[in-house]
Amino acid sequence: DIQMTQSPSSLSASVGDRVTMTCRASQGISNYLAWYQQRLGKVPKLLIYAASTLQSGVPSRFSGSGSGTDFTLTITSLQPEDVATYYCQKYDSAPLTFGGGTKVEIK
Amino acid sequence: QVQLQESGPGLVKPSETLALTCTVSGGSISSGSYYWSWIRQPAEKGLEWIGRIYPSGSTNYNPSLKSRVTISVDTSKNQFSLKLSSVTAADTAVYYCAGVGVNWAFDYWGQGTLVTVSS
Questions:
Q1: Residues of B in Cβ contact (< 8 Å) with A50
Q2: pLDDT computed for residue B31 by the predictor
Q3: Secondary structure of residue B47 in the 3-state scheme
Q4: Are B105 and A101 inside 8 Å of each other by CB?
């Protein structure tokens, strides 16, 4: 089965900073990759699908890139409301594995 | 707008079977070729996909749970269900039901229900 590895596991940045996190698949998954945001105590929210397509209503400071095995989620200007854990998930075929998450905090 | 709601016991005894139901409203569970999933999250840990079911009844399960999991669908009630047998404390988690949208990612989520395994 394909494993999804996210890095770093946590990061701390200042408001306005550019933040980048990565997700690596152990085998190629084309662009069948989604990113979710989960604020503390809340339900996960879909941010990006097909590796780079922004879900409707998601601020444009979020962007995704990548294909195959290496993917990136970028927040161009970190805002206080972006404090959350971010998960990647493959959906090319079962099992639909999630990465371990990247926790984003404000410095 | 599709909405999902989990229901079921919040406390299950060790070795017994956990049973949850997800009711879908605002749309038909049989729409298109979309599928419905169960996902869980132990406290302070990440998301774990449990399995999925298509309206036809076809299923796929997480290999790590496959021997203990059954997901079923009742299209007449617009519901799908999860059964997890022989539970232990390690199965204590918030359980979410989720559905994919036209983008094939999990667009729709229930609010989650905490299930505690304890005697």
A1: 103, 105
A2: 78
A3: coil
A4: no
